[in-house]
Amino acid sequence: MFLTHFQFTSQPFAEHVSADFLWPDDRMQQGLSRLRYVAEHATVGLVTGASGVGKSALLKRFLHELSGPQWEPVYLHLTHLPSAGLLKLLVGKLGEVPRRGKDRLFEQILERARQAEGTLLIILDEAHLIDSDALTDIRLLISSALDDAPPLKVVLAGQEPIRQTLRQSSQAALLSRIGVRYHLPALTKPQTATYIDFQLKQAGGSEKLFEDSTKALIHDYTGGIPRQINNLATACLLAASAENVSRISESILQQTLHEFQLP
After folding, report:
1. Per residue in 215-233, pLDDT tens?
2. Which end of the chain lies in a sparser environment, N or C, as judged by fewer CB atoms within 10 Å?
3. Cα separation, 88 vs 38, whole angstroms
4. Are 33 and 49 in contact (CB under 8 A)?
């Protein structure tokens, strides 16, 4: 196993890590500042980005910050459900047994929101999978004219298609309520190199393990998408370990790239 070969203390480039070990890059700080504004002042926030760019990592860091009685965050990622199914899932996450009928589900969610000690903040990951009817229902949950303040707040996070869905005339009312929008970009070439070094250091490894030219080529191949960087860097470590070499050179990378070519 390459962990022993390179004397790592933990798995570098792992996809699932605790919020404390996520790389605090400028993109994340920009995203966090906007999500904090949603939590404190706005009603709906929208986060978009390509698959694997770090949206879920951003949400994880945000949720990690929301500790305390003034917040009651609820995270959902199984969004590819009919509207009633999504509402039932939300009710279940709120710790209650879903009632029959969409009207009762609405009442149940709103009643629960008004009884919450802190602000009920619903975070919907994979929001590009939410169908049009479900988006309409989400808008209805936050648009009560009888409340002095919105009973709950919503963050939508998904890939680019969610933007196009929200531009449809049927979603104009929801689009107009989105107070904060943030598109999470891919890493630049310098950021990719820093990201690789950070992951190696977190795992107890040397920042010089990957040659500079190799880091640049990894960026070119992955487009700066962190998930793809993780996959390719891990494959390089496996190949280097198998060949009993101590550095990741361009030749190791080129050899590894063949494994990433789909037939």
Report:
1. 999 999 999 999 999 999 9
2. C
3. 25
4. no
